[in-house]
Amino acid sequence: MAEFTLVQVRYFVAAAELGGMTAAARELVVAQSAISSAVANLEKDLGVQLFLRHHARGLSLTPAGARFLAEAREFLAHAGRLAESAHELGAGLTGELTVGCFVTLAPFYVPGLLAAFAGKHPAVRVSVAEGELAGLQQALLVGGCELALMYAIEPAAELEVEPLARVEPYAVLPPGHPLADAGDRTSLEALAGEPMILLDLPHSRDYFRSLFTQSGVEPRIRFRTTSYETVRSMVAAGHGYSILNQRPSTDHTYGGGRVAAVPLDDELPALDLVLARRKDARPTARASAFAEVCRNYIREADSIERKDLLDG
Length: 312
Hints:
Distance between the termini: 69 Å
Order of helices and strands: HHHEEHEHEHEEEHEHEHEEEH
Largest sheet: 5 strands, mixed
Strand order of the largest sheet: 4-3-5-12-6
Strand content: 15-25%
Helix content: 40-55%
Number of strands: 12
Number of helices: 10
Shape: elongated
Radius of gyration: 27 Å
């Protein structure tokens, strides 16, 4: 079996990516002779030529070198993860972690999640990127974040989604509405003739409109807003009703009004609340730890919400 060192592989990758020994030496701040010697010894150990040397024109990869480069990059990435894991076994989780969160979910989950995670892993610095579904998916695909808490509405094929909870749609009604009394239920057909305030976010708007299409009715959309709380405040002020999924722990709005959450009789699709990640990306120990905290936190929050709905 061929024997080679991590340094040899690192020097080879640098030379291949930068197109020459001189550029690699400059990038790694080592002597050019060290790069040349390491690459030559690597070729000798492997028994294969990795580079074609061109006088005054640098290097080019042989077909075998190109194949080895792809494997070498993964080898170095795995070595980095191995070193990280070894360090964490002795010193606990450290470093930085960026997670994404759908903008309307953030107020419900981010504060508590950060507190729960910090209680277990205080040395990890977590950054949260809020955004709409398209932006979050793009961030996951390009490495802007490792994980994202979002709804499973048309997830990209490159993403893996882990369901955490199912969130049922419900009607938001103003105080004094005939259907707002405790214990009442309603239907989209009963509400269709009244003005509606639509949460007008990409994908979300299509989901809400699809609920009416499935029920065979057409909503009378009077106002549109991209703000979850503006929807509730508009309802509280008597401008109409709305349909939402996440339910706050209080019926009070920012403006001091109140709304009533009324269950729907319609058989409507719930939204899956999921934790998304790239399928082909091996999670860091930090990301795996955050995912575990997320599962436990949302499982507990979901059970409390279901109990509140039953008690209500």
